[in-house]
Structure formats: C-alpha cells, structure tokens
Amino acid sequence: MLSIKVLLLGALAQCAWALVSDVPGLNGPIPVVPDTQGSKTRPSDFIHPGLWHSHSDLETMRNNVLGNVEPWKSTYQAFSYDSFSQSSYAMRGPFAVISRGGISNYTSFQADTRAAYHNAIMWYITKDDAHWKRSTTILDAWGSNLTNIIGTDRSLMIGLDGDLFVNAAEIMRWEGGWVEQGAKWQGGSGFSIQLYWLFARQSVIIGQANYGIVSIKALLSFAIYLDDVAMYNYALYAYKNDLCAGIESTIDSSTGQSSESGRDQSHSMTGLGWLALAARVVNNQGYNLFTYANNLLLKGSEYTAKYNLNGTVPYDPKFYRCEAVLVNGPWSKISTDQRGIQKQVWDILHYSAVANKLQNPWTLKAKQATDALGGERRVTANDMPSWGDLFFATKG
Fold first, then answer.
1. How many CA atoms lie within 13 A of 290 on its CB side?
2. Crossing angle between the packed helical segments 129-145 and 154-174, to the nearest 10 degrees
C-alpha cells in the first residue's frame, strides 16, 4: 500500500506544472463584507512587520535575551539548542506537491517551515548571517518549487504550517531585507505567488469550529503579508461574525464554554490558542481583538483552564459546534477525554491578558502547570509556535 501511495504522489508531482497554472481545488471568491471596527481601507494601512511579531515585539525579545532578563534568557538558551534553530539544519524538501489526508507527505514542509521560522528569530536576536541564509533559502526553495497543496486536511496544513511559513517570511522581508527569489515586476514567480494561490485562496472557504478558526487566523497573516485589504477585512469580519467559526459561535458569552467542550478537551484548548494568535496579529495591526466582546477570549480561556485543572464548570448541551454530527455530537455532557493541561496555548493567553491588565487566575494556573512540566518548549507539530516565554512574554 505504501508503494502505491508513493507512486501516486510521484504522478501528482509530474503533473504539478499543469496544476499550478490552473485554479487550485479549493478556491472561493473573497466575499465583500460589511465594514467592521479594525478594518483596512488601503494597502498602505498595513503595519510591517505585523504578524505574530511587530518590530517592537522583536526588539523586546532581543533586548531581554541580550540583557539576561528572565524568562527570555533561559527560554532562549533552550531554543537556541533546538535542532530547528540551527543554521546547519538540513532541509527535508522542497517537493512540488504536498498532501495532508489519506495520502500524506506534508511532514517535510512542516519541519522546514519551523526551521525557517526558528532561524528567522535566531537571526534577529544574534544578527548571525548564517541564520539569515538558512531561513531565506528555505523560503525560496519552497516558494520556487511548490506547485500544489492537496488532501482532505489541506486546510489544517495551510492554516498551521502555512502560517508559520509566512511569519518567517514577514520577519526576513521587513527586518532582514530579503527579496523573494524569482520576484519580478511582471509577476508569475516567487514566494508570494505560491502564498496567494496555494495558501491564501485555499483558505477563503471557512469551515466549522476549529477548522474554520485555523483558516481565519492564517488568512489574517496571509492578507497582511500580501497587503490584501479585501482578504484581511473578510478574515477580521469572520473572526467576529462567522456563524460556525467566529469567536461568538465557538465560545459561549455567558460562561466561556467552548463549542468543542463536549467533544474533547484537546480541541477546546487548541481553538483558544488559534483565536489568541489571530488576536495577536490584529493587535499588531493597531486594533485590540483580545478584549473583543467583553473579553470573550479570556472568558473562554478561564473556563477551559479551570475545567482542565479539575475544577467544576457549568455545561450547556445546547451550545455546540456546527456539524457536530461529523464528530459524534452533539454531546449531553462535558467531555473528560484528554482532560488536563496538555496543550501549548497558555503562554500566549496569559501574556495577552497581562498586556491588557486583565486578571486571569485560572489561565495563570494553567501556565504554571505547564511550566512545572518544563514549559512550552520543543514541539514536532505546528499547532502552536510554542516557546511562549521567548516569543510572547511581557511584563505586567
């Protein structure tokens, strides 16, 4: 069976040039949405760098590492030894076609994007040209050779690995002076071509619950890199208002219950982390999304943290996700499956609350529980960037 899968991927790769010149499989038009607070009106409204890290964020990180200030110092020390942070990291790709689904080969892209991002951070802190070269060669290699993204779970791959990919590019472009290989005034080649057609346009069809959240948070990043006003406004509007993936559809405003709370706790935590990453991006564009809807994201964080620290919380069986039937729902009671603090989301949630001077007792306890287990350190998947005490730390 494995050999058949490999042969099929090989065949797909051979026809990749035909695919890349066509419209990708998932490619909806960008809907025109009503104006909402925080929207952009022209490309020059965008702030760069302005995804997970603004210039100020990067300076905070660098200055505190060089100044031996905790928690940046010790987290950076571990981060700098991580294999993905090495300028000698050996690329596992690129490939013309990557897939996540029944047939998968995406782990090469997953690893390379993390290495590109880690090396971008390492370059900014150390100013070592070897890290600049490692990050940008990965960006150019995949940006020049990738021609299609396929598979039933492509939306997850695009929203997770693609977001890491574009965050590396944003740093290297605006802080490092990187110019995409193949970029020309006529268009037609280079990193941004792949980013637009294979990543951004395939995220426009927003799914339900976490599937939709991951697309929204990635679309915000893609839109900023591309200076795409319509795409950004659409994603921001969806964050607030999408009936199946918007924050008010996925967190109960009365209690903080997640629409996935009856399914399992892993999905509840992951959704919070992705909403927090989206809020951080929008914050770096000048609009505070973390406090939106009377601090709804924090309310969701407190609810899920409390329950996963063995606290008692209310549960409404009528508050559940769209298409719950796809995952054996709806659910009559809150799930104990995967209960416990085991997702790397608590640093960004805690530090976002601190930055907004908001009390977050259960979220803080969840972070402390994570820290007691070694903190948000090395990961092999890209659900979250991890290393929160380096990337997101702030002083209250």
1. 23
2. 140
How would DSSP label each residue in 246-310?
A: SHHHHB-TTT--BTTTTT-HHHHHHHHHHHHHHHHHHHTTT---TTHHHHHHHHHHHHHHHHHTT
- Show Cβ contacts of residue 301 under 8 Å, excluding neighbours closer than 6 positions: 256, 272, 276, 349, 353, 360, 362, 363, 366
Peptide bond into 71 cis (omega under 30): yes
Per-residue pLDDT of the chain in tens (396 residues, 90 and over written 9): 434 443 444 444 433 333 344 555 666 689 999 999 999 999 999 999 999 999 999 999 999 999 999 999 999 999 999 999 999 999 999 999 999 887 788 999 999 999 999 999 999 999 999 999 999 999 999 998 998 898 888 899 999 999 999 999 999 999 999 999 988 888 777 889 889 989 998 899 899 999 999 999 999 999 999 999 999 999 999 999 999 999 999 999 999 999 999 999 999 999 999 999 999 999 999 999 999 999 999 999 999 999 999 999 999 999 999 999 999 999 999 999 999 998 899 999 999 999 999 999 999 999 999 999 999 987 778 999 999 999 999 986
Q: How far is CA 362 from CA 281, 309, 315, in A?
A: 24, 8, 17
Sequence letter at residue 111: A
Pairing mode, strands 97-99 and 148-150: parallel
Count Cβ atoms below 10 Å from residue 240 Cβ, excluding itself: 18
